[in-house]
């Protein structure tokens, strides 16, 4: 295993912020921690095997792993600047007892960068403690989901999700897909919020992103992929992909070579 970690700093108030640099093809063996870990990337998409389940974490989402949760990151396709926020169990309880995906705002990411800079400059402990408290408060109120692409066993919603995530339906609009089911669109959208805590359009966008990442790695061209996802112009697809992953399809494709 190759893992470049920046300088370590002693914990303050039960919260640690660490940064790592992963190089292409780096592998991390399965491990767990006595503290909880909140992991996210500043510049790419993280993929994790967490107790046998696959989790995806694009730049605007982070993964919470409670204490003693065995996990490993999958081999990375390009250099990733990766952040790990370690929380003492007395703090981790506020984030839940199961693995969850948290949506993070630009302010949160900027705050992490500021904390790392202050640690390197050995800032006054009182100021650093204040920043860590703000960071924790931001994390506690961030929207949380069971998974980046949450699922449902609801008898009405489950077959709809299956159809929405099917590649052969990606060229159809959301409304065209929903018209195939004998349920009102309003009822379906209400079920989506209740079961997934996501709008159906957002859920489908995430399904498209997972499909696109896999197809790019399999060698599909950007033009072919844009057409498969229902885009008339490659530029529109590229903009969509970058908004969700923090990089262009070409950057991901080149990193996979």
TrEMBL record:
Keywords: DNA-binding, Transcription, Transcription regulation. PROSITE patterns: HTH_ARAC_FAMILY_1, HTH_ARAC_FAMILY_2. The keyword DNA-binding applies. SUPFAM superfamilies: Homeodomain-like (SSF46689), RmlC-like cupins (SSF51182). The keyword Transcription regulation applies. Residues 154-255 form the HTH araC/xylS-type domain. One of its GO terms (molecular function) is sequence-specific DNA binding. Coiled coil: none annotated. It comes from the Bacteria. Pfam families: HTH_18. SMART domains: HTH_ARAC (SM00342). PANTHER family: ARAC-FAMILY REGULATORY PROTEIN, HTH-TYPE TRANSCRIPTIONAL REGULATOR NIMR. This is HTH araC/xylS-type domain-containing protein. It comes from Acinetobacter venetianus (strain ATCC 31012 / DSM 23050 / BCRC 14357 / CCUG 45561 / CIP 110063 / KCTC 2702 / LMG 19082 / RAG-1).
